[in-house]
Design a protein that fits this description.
Elements: H1 5-30, H2 50-78
Helix pairs in contact: 1-2
Length: 82
């Protein structure tokens, strides 16, 4: 079975972007989860704040979109399924 590269990449981007966004808001509201601040090493400008949640959403979407597309493309190239 071949993967649809665009569909898989879009699904990965939406999922990871929303996860980062919601986890950041959850950490902000509950006052816990400071370990999420480690994402600032990867996502420039990210922090545990409302603006940081939006920055994380955009960076998370973009990075997972690229990784998902690469994964699906490699899977299709290396897969023996037609």
């Amino acid at each position: 079975m071949k993967l649809n590269v665009k569909g898989f990449a879009l699904a990965c981007g939406i999922a990871w972007g929303l996860i980062v966004f919601l986890f950041t808001l959850s950490a902000l509201w509950r006052g816990v989860g400071q370990h999420l601040g480690l994402l600032a090493a990867v996502y420039w400008g990210y922090g545990i704040s409302y603006l940081g949640s939006l920055i994380g959403l955009v960076y998370g979407f973009a990075s997972a979109l690229a990784v998902g597309a690469l994964f699906a493309w490699l899977y299709n190239k290396l897969s023996k399924a037609e």
